[in-house]
Structure to design on (405 residues):
């Protein structure tokens, strides 16, 4: 039951895009058509799902104050948490490299359409952000962190596909010239964010 | 390119947020108060400037295949330094605590990586330092404009001092995150109306 509530909460209430604005750069740049948005969204879900539990273990057994106590009682007071940024990002960068190689080998069409944004998943704030929020949330086991990762990933995926669909339709509407393209997208995301606020404060 | 152009272009003509659309994430989350925006703008400027400089010094020694990881390690190191400095000032300067994860997220701020990829790897160290600082300032400028409106309309204060008349009813919509997006949309509108070259077809 806790898993389900965490899952639903991370998709809707703590949505990566609408509640925290994480991963905005690629969100705005790759949402011109639904097909590419779909590919990038799936890649983000995958990378989040792999890196977040891994980072959870790193945090629990290496970085937290006193986390190294399992190695020797001498380390019980050691606090390595200042290293967390560098370790988290190293894990994420390595995984992104892996995803990039797999996509390049098996899905060349998707690889071509994602272009520079595939390697940039490594610097997608949603992924590092997921790990940093995980650090603050004190999950009790790996399962919870994996559910949280899946939920946040799906939330991000839903958001990007939604925006891509709206932007595809918007190509036919008569937008003031200076607002065309990125300007109107910002405002659209703002309005979508307002709509998502109805989920706020829901407790499951 | 002349040094003066290197400095001025990123602030207005190719502003990282309104034109290149890089580094938007943090621009939205930290702009509820002017103080937070100022600290964030400063931290980002330091990291982009120094990051560009260090990577430009290293540019001939980095194999192309692993450059992203090298960049991330350098940037992460700089961000850890900034984070530790801010943490040490927390007692006298409580605003640092509000920024929480967003300081860590400077690592993945696209401006930092974008400028390293696009500029530092192909230019000498000093112009790279200037380019990094200018991009940080261009980012900071937008942050401060957004924060100015959000703090003024949302809380009726500026830097924590009451400026609106006593009867002013605060507008809670402005405090909500989505409003920052709408505000940036409007800034882009004004910017592109003034500079027709930037308009999209």
């Amino acid at each position: 039951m806790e898993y389900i509530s965490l899952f639903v909460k991370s998709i809707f209430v703590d949505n990566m895009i609408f509640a925290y604005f994480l991963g905005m750069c690629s969100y705005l740049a790759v949402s011109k058509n639904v097909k590419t948005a779909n590919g990038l969204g799936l890649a983000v879900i995958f990378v989040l799902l792999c890196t977040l539990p891994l980072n959870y273990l790193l945090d629990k057994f290496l970085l937290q104050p006193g986390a190294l106590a399992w190695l020797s009682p001498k380390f019980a007071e050691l606090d390595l948490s200042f290293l967390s940024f560098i370790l988290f990002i190293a894990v994420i960068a390595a995984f992104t490299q892996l995803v990039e190689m797999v996509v390049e080998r098996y899905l060349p069409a998707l690889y071509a359409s994602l272009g520079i944004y595939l390697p940039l998943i490594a610097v997608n704030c949603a992924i590092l952000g997921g790990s940093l929020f995980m650090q603050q949330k004190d999950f009790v086991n790996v399962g919870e962190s994996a559910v949280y990762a899946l939920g946040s990933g799906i939330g991000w995926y839903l958001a990007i596909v939604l925006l891509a669909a709206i932007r595809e339709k918007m190509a036919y509407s008569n937008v003031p010239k200076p607002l065309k393209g990125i300007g109107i997208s910002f405002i659209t995301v703002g309005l979508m964010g307002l709509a998502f606020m109805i989920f706020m404060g829901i407790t499951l | 390119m002349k040094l003066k152009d290197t400095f001025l272009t990123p602030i207005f003509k190719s502003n990282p947020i309104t034109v290149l659309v890089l580094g938007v994430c943090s621009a939205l989350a930290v702009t509820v108060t002017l103080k937070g925006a100022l600290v964030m703008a400063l931290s980002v400027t330091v990291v982009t400037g120094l990051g560009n400089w260090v990577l430009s010094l290293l540019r001939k020694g980095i194999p192309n295949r692993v450059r992203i990881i090298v960049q991330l390690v350098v940037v992460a190191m700089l961000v850890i330094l900034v984070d530790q400095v801010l943490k040490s000032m927390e007692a006298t300067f409580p605003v640092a605590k509000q920024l929480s994860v967003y300081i860590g997220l400077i690592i993945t701020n696209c401006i930092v990586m974008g400028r390293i990829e696009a500029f530092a790897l192909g230019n000498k160290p000093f112009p790279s330092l200037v380019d990094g600082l200018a991009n940080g300032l261009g980012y900071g400028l937008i942050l401060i404009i957004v924060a100015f409106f959000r703090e003024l309309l949302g809380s009726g204060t500026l830097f924590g001092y009451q400026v609106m008349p006593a009867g002013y009813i605060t507008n809670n919509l402005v405090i909500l995150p989505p409003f920052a997006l709408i505000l940036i949309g409007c800034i882009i509108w004004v910017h592109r109306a003034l500079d027709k070259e930037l308009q999209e077809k």
Remarks:
- The longest helix of chain A spans residues 34-63.
